[in-house]
Protein 1
Amino acid sequence: MPSLYFAPNSRLFAVTNLNEMNGPQEVQIWDSSTHKKLKTLRGHTRNIIMASWSPDSTQLATSSFDKTIRVADLTALIGKIKESGKTDLLNS
């Protein structure tokens, strides 16, 4: 079942377990203000159990039934959003 995880900045959110079969999974990172998908993270081979954002919303950790934990550094992605000039929610 798909799950939704909002980042502390309230701007970004992650969607997990889009593939309901117990196979390769991806995590999609979305921008809530533009309604656009920003990035797709791949690597887990089974369903994702949990996702958790860092306090500054620059990293996302995911754990999976494949017995792995993956940490994605989204610092560059945050930088691109800031460069676009729409930073109101990123700084809250």
Protein 2
Amino acid sequence: MFTVVYKTRPILGELKMDFLGIVSEITSEKQAVVTGSMVPDIGNSVFDSKKNKIGTVKRIFGPVDEPYVSITLDKGVSFEGLKGKEVYISGSAQNGKDKRRNRRN
């Protein structure tokens, strides 16, 4: 007899992940400061290398070439081993306003 095994793909496995940067500091307000390689949108979800959501982008500051990104960590996320880790954002998705640009009436 043959056994048929169906493999399901996890939903997060289909997300396109863009490299955001490396966590350089953890503040006392439970926020992570990342030295960014790109400028994300405020409110984007931030993931670790295992595609686990760790927080959201709160603020962007510093120089334009290498901006600093402040991330508010989600409840239950341990910030102890986060320093020096690589973090990612989900692929750029257009919001509703950007989709409507340059549309002819």
